[in-house]
């Protein structure tokens, strides 16, 4: 049996006296889309941040390709997110002073690519997500759906092995949300990228291969996800 690409084991995280995660286990295989669902405040985003190395778990381990990244320095985890991991947030978090193409090229530039190479890759990814026509526009001139497609392109431009998507359609209307999810799924299937997808929306969770339900910082053994009675 092939070992998982990413595994979180016994992850705990407290914010002061408030427990956010209480011994969560989660594994993701190569190319698998795993949805993490549950009510607001159950620890979904905290789990994603621990798995992506944005936060360090208080206890437990996060293993990527046989390496416990929880033991790495913050700088090493940051480098990992510029190469092997892609991160997509609810509101895109585009840099407002940069054009769409410059935003998408940024991870490549930070990783040491030349400007021409980075721009060409950025334009190619913007085209894949159907927003090549806004390449030279600032985020403020774009619609919410266009901004989020650009943000997905930025998260995928390094061809990461794992994409972490935190409520990627939460700021969009239903139509734009469906279009963005279809574009994400198409791209990750073509690239073989694994996805950890945090959502509270049943239609979004339905795009996943598997669903993990959190309640009060722990995996719900009943497995009753969003939209369940």
UniProtKB/TrEMBL annotation:
GO terms for cellular component: plasma membrane. InterPro entries: AAA+_ATPase (IPR003593), ABC_transporter-like_ATP-bd (IPR003439), ABC_transpr_LolD-like (IPR015854), MacB-like_ATP-bd (IPR017911), P-loop_NTPase (IPR027417). CDD domains: ABC_MJ0796_LolCDE_FtsE. Pfam families: ABC_tran (PF00005). The keyword Transport applies. Keywords: ATP-binding, Nucleotide-binding, Transport. It comes from the Bacteria. GO terms for molecular function: ATP binding; ATP hydrolysis activity; transmembrane transporter activity. Residues 6-228 form the ABC transporter domain. This is Putative ABC transport system ATP-binding protein.
